[in-house]
Amino acid sequence: MEIGIDRLACEANAVCVGFAPDVFDLDDDENLVIQSGPVPADQVERVSDAVKSCPKNALFIVG
Description:
By secondary structure, the protein is of the alpha+beta class. 24% of the residues lie in helices and 22% in strands. The protein is built from two helices and four strands; from the N terminus they run E-H-E-E-H-E.
């Protein structure tokens, strides 16, 4: 499982960071950063919840 982002829709409000801080983060310019590569097995449920909870539907699961 990997995560994609619609950068035009993302407002970087950090809801996803609250669900899965090991996968999502905000950089110094308040842009969303997603850990590269597949989501670690122990983070799949948290990341799925983050994707479902994104207020702008800017996150999506790839594969």
